[in-house]
Write a structure and sequence with these properties.
alpha/beta, Rossmann fold, Pantoate--beta-alanine Ligase, Chain: A,domain 2, 2 domains, 6-stranded parallel beta sheet, 3-stranded antiparallel beta sheet, globular, binds pantoate
C-alpha cells in the first residue's frame, strides 16, 4: 500500500493511474464502519484511496481536537489487510498552509440538528472534503449513513459544485446490541457501553410510534424523557424527512429519526430510517 504525506506525492501517483479511483475520507481510528466505506469505494472502481486526516476546521474550540484518537499504525495495518491501494496522511500545514483563507459555507442541508449544536462544523467538513476531492480526483466517494446529515451536506456540495463524483451511501455498521460503531465508543466505560444501545432503541421506538400515527413531537418528547430518565443528556431526537431534513408531512414516505445525546459525557449520534407506505 502506498502511503503519501504530501499533495504532490499523491498527485504524481494519481497521474500515473489509468482507470477510476474510489475514495473514503476518514479521520483515522478506523473500525469496521470505515472498512465498509473502503469496500464500497473499491466496488466498481480500479483503485482505492483512504485519507486519514483529523481536520481541525470541523472542531469547535470547546471540542477536543488534540484529544481525538490517533492510531495510525493500527489503521495502516487494517487498510493493508483490506486491499487499500493508497492512503493519504497529510499534516495540518499541508492541508491548510498559512496562506489559505478561502472556505466553503455548507448549504441548506447543514441547517438544524448537528448544525445547531456544532456551529461551523459542516463548513469545516465541506471545506476539507472539497480540498480532498480536488486532490484525489475520485469517481466514487463513500460516506457512512451514521452521519446522515454530513452525507447530505456532501451530496449537496457535489451537486452545487458540479463535481463528476458519485456518492455511495454506506449503511451503518452496528454492534450486536444495535450501538452504531463510532470512534467515540472507545471513551465509554464498559457499563456505559452496555447502556449506549438505548439511543438506538429510542430511535426505533420513536419510528414505531410515528408509523403507528403518533405525532412526531410527542414521539420525540417521549423518547427524550425515557433517555433522560436513564441518565442521558439529550441534544435532540428528531423525526424528519430523510431526504430533505424538513418536518414530515402526510406525503413524506422516507422517514428518518435522528438523535444526538451524551452518556457519561460522551456525545453519540445515530439515525435510522424507513419507507412509510
Ligand atoms: O466523517 C468524518 O470522519 C469526517 O467528517 C470527514 C468526512 C473525514 C471529514 O473530515
Amino acid at each position: 500500500m502506498n502511503i503519501f504525506h504530501t499533495i504532490a506525492e499523491l498527485r504524481a501517483w494519481r497521474r500515473s493511474l489509468t482507470g477510476t479511483v474510489g475514495f473514503a475520507p476518514t479521520m483515522g481510528n478506523l473500525h469496521d464502519g470505515h472498512i465498509a466505506c473502503l469496500h464500497a469505494a473499491q466496488l466498481g472502481t480500479n483503485h482505492s484511496v483512504v485519507s486519514i486526516f483529523v481536520n481541525p476546521t470541523q472542531f469547535a474550540p470547546t471540542d477536543d481536537f488534540a484529544k481525538y484518537p490517533r492510531t495510525l499504525e493500527d489503521d495502516l495495518k487494517l487498510l493493508t489487510a483490506n486491499g487499500c491501494d493508497a492512503v493519504f496522511v497529510p499534516s495540518v500545514d499541508e492541508m491548510y498552509p498559512r496562506s489559505a483563507s478561502t472556505k466553503v459555507i455548507a448549504g441548506s442541508m447543514a441547517q438544524g440538528l448537528e448544525g445547531d449544536f456544532r456551529p461551523g462544523h459542516f463548513d469545516g467538513v465541506a471545506t476539507v472534503c472539497l480540498k480532498l476531492f480536488q486532490i484525489v480526483e475520485p469517481a466514487v466517494v463513500a460516506f457512512g449513513c451514521k452521519d446522515l446529515q454530513q452525507m447530505r451536506v456532501i451530496q449537496q456540495l457535489i451537486n452545487d459544485f458540479n463535481m463528476p463524483i458519485r456518492l455511495e451511501a454506506v449503511p451503518t455498521t452496528r454492534e450486536a446490541s444495535g450501538l452504531a460503531l463510532s470512534s467515540r465508543n472507545r471513551y465509554l466505560t464498559p457499563d456505559a457501553k452496555v447502556q449506549a444501545s438505548q439511543l438506538n432503541q429510542g430511535l426505533q421506538d420513536t419510528l414505531r410510534q410515528v408509523i403507528a400515527g403518533t405525532s412526531p413531537a410527542s414521539a420525540e418528547a417521549k423518547t427524550t424523557a425515557v433517555l433522560e430518565e436513564h441518565g442521558w443528556d439529550v441534544d435532540y431526537i428528531a423525526v424528519r424527512d430523510a431526504v430533505t431534513f424538513q418536518n414530515i408531512t402526510p406525503e413524506t414516505t422516507d422517514v428518518a429519526v435522528l438523535g444526538a445525546a451524551r452518556l457519561s459525557g460522551v456525545r453519540l449520534i445515530d439515525n435510522i430510517s424507513a419507507i412509510r407506505s
